Amino acid sequence: MTAVELDEDIRDGLQEVTNIAVGLAADKIARCFSTFVKMPIPNIHFIEAADISMTLGAIGSGDQVTAVAQPFYGHGVSGEAVLVFTDASMDQLSRLMVDHGAGDDHQQAELVLEMASLLSGACIQGICSQLDIGVLIKHPELFGQHESVEDLLSVEMLPWKQTLAIELNYAFEGFDITCDLIVLFHESSLEGLFNQLSFLLE
């Protein structure tokens, strides 16, 4: 268990920072694809590795999904963003991004990777820039395709026991797309992250 406390002030501050970052990401998506992105309310909490699949509340148990992971590193801060789409959303995602139905597995994976570069990258950059944390965001990589959330996020694959999660469920106006983004800050990052938040709140 982490010794860092997620008190109400820190949670509120992180939620406000995330709201601004979400707005920047939504604006980028809107300009790229001419669609309105419904702003999600950030769900911020500590999670155990054993419970991570439960954080994907909008995705039903047993649904097949495609997911990408995008690591990031900054001064005293590291983590990764996991972006997950249900396979049932692929046709709608393709219509949103390229104006035609879903193609083969390779084309579908490329769409999710492109969305991650825009959506995940903008959220991470938006959060870190407000906290004056320089960050290096790596290219997204395919994490799994046509797998269940339970298989995809097995405890054995996770290098940590507990972490801070910012969970966001995105919706795109006019499209039936289930999209979850989870930004995970590694346990070793929390003291530096919370110190930066406290400095911002003073």
Q: What can you tell me about this protein's structure?
A:
The structure is a single chain. By secondary structure, the protein is an alpha+beta fold. It has a single domain, classed as CheC-like (Chemotaxis protein chec, 3-Layer(aba) Sandwich), CATH 3.40.1550. Helix content is 38%, strand content 29%. A hairpin with a 6-residue loop joins β7 and β8. α1 crosses α3 and α1 crosses α5. The chain starts with 7 loop residues before the first helix and ends with a helix. The mean pLDDT is 83.
What is the element layout, followed by pairings?
Blueprint: H1 8-33, E1 37-38, E2 43-48, E3 64-74, E4 77-86, H2 90-98, H3 105-130, E5 135-137, E6 141-148, H4 149-152, E7 162-172, E8 179-185, H5 190-201
Helix pairs in contact: 1-3, 1-5
Kindly list the characteristics that best describe this protein.
202 residues; alpha+beta; Chemotaxis protein chec; eight-stranded antiparallel sheet
Write a brief caption for the model:
Helices cover about 40% and strands about 30% of the residues.
Which residues sit in consecutive blocks of at least 5 with pLDDT less than 50?
none
| Integer tally of domains | 1
CATH architecture: 3-Layer(aba) Sandwich
Class from secondary-structure proportions: alpha+beta
What is the CATH superfamily classification?
CheC-like
Let me know the number of strands: 8
The CATH topology is: Chemotaxis protein chec
Q: Considering DSSP H and I runs of 4 or more, what fraction of the residues is helical? A: 25-40%
Q: What overall form do the CA principal axes indicate?
A: globular
Termini separation comes to: 27 Å
Beta fraction of the residues?
A: 25-35%
Rg, nearest Å: 16 Å
Major sheet? 8 strands, antiparallel
